[in-house]
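S.,

Sequence below, as promised.
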Amino acid sequence: MPFELPPLPYDYTALEPFIDEQTMHLHHDKHHQTYVDKANAALAGTEWADKSPEEILYHLDKVPLEKRTAIRNHVGGVANHTFFWESMGPGKGGEPSGTLADKIKDEFGDFETFKQKLTDASVNHFGSGWGWLVDNGAKLEVLSTVNQDSPISLGMKPLLACDVWEHAYYLKYQNRRPDYVAAWWNVVDWDRVAERLNKD
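The prediction came back faster than expected:
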């Protein structure tokens, strides 16, 4: 079944003033839709056409070589953007609690150290890509990926993602990526991140 653009889990204005309405319309309605359309085109007629984005990305090494780049880019774009919208929410931000907070403390020493590591991974990433908090199977880890590459393809469980493609922030923040990333922390949905950590 072809992929469809999922609706935002909140209103286009819900993340103001941190992420503006105009960016949300452009990012969701145009960019995410384009990934959906191009992913469907790349998958059409293949055995992967009825698989979930996550299953495709996990088994990317089994995708035919001639289609692999297009599928990695566009299926990755579908999965990463859906994940990104669901990582945020109005009235969120702050710090995690419970098991997630304990794991962050165990791995990074304290929340502020973790926050700085993910900020650095996102701000200092060269070109287009993503900053991530992942569960690598043994511990929590901060990393960045290029373009629409997903940690799923590396066998890791994504927990949180910061989109640092310019289309995610340029209308409001222009070239000030550090300002955008600083603002993004105010809308992180830690409850959702905790759900992902606890999910098998």
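The mean pLDDT is 97.

Coffee later?
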